[in-house]
């Protein structure tokens, strides 16, 4: 079954911008809320807890949401830089919101 790990990357003021990144794995192990997921993208790989699990039996995949990353800046370029870094570790960006200023 495909396991799709989803994480939101937020600027300091979430209203200024955020994005959702995702990475797909094939596994028979379905994470549960409260589990921790490790990935090379994260500087502290044991820090991101599973907050929500949605199982879609019809499409044979599981969406696994982990705690958001909160950037300590409102610089919109920081989201783009993080996106490029995430891509280098095989993550994809599905959704990007940046407030028009």
Features:
101 residues, 13% helix, six-stranded mixed beta sheet
Beta-strand residue percentage: 35-45%
Gap between N and C termini, in Å?
Answer: 42 Å
Flag low-confidence runs: none
Radius of gyration: 14 Å
Q: Please tell me the overall pLDDT.
A: 90
Largest sheet properties:
6 strands, mixed
Concise account of the structure shown:
By secondary structure, this protein is mostly beta strands. The protein has one helix and six strands; from the N terminus they run E-E-E-E-E-H-E. Helix content is 13%, strand content 41%.
Question: What does it look like?
Answer:
The protein is mainly beta. It has one domain. The chain contains one helix and six strands. Strands 1, 2, 3, 4, 5 and 6 form a six-stranded mixed sheet that branches. The model has no long low-confidence stretch (mean pLDDT 90).
Show the helix and strand layout.
Elements: E1 2-10, E2 17-26, E3 50-56, E4 61-66, E5 69-70, H1 76-88, E6 92-98
Parallel strand pairs: 1-4, 1-5
Antiparallel strand pairs: 1-2, 2-6, 3-4
């Amino acid at each position: 079954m495909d396991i799709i790990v989803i994480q939101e990357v937020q600027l300091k003021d979430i209203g200024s911008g955020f994005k959702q990144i995702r990475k797909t794995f094939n596994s028979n192990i379905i994470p549960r809320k409260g589990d921790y997921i490790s990935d090379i993208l994260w500087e502290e790989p044991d820090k991101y807890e599973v907050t929500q699990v949605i199982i879609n039996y019809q499409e044979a995949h599981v969406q696994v949401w982990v705690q958001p990353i909160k950037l300590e800046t409102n610089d919109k370029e920081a989201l783009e830089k993080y996106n490029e870094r995430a891509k280098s570790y095989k993550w994809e960006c599905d959704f990007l919101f940046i407030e028009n200023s």
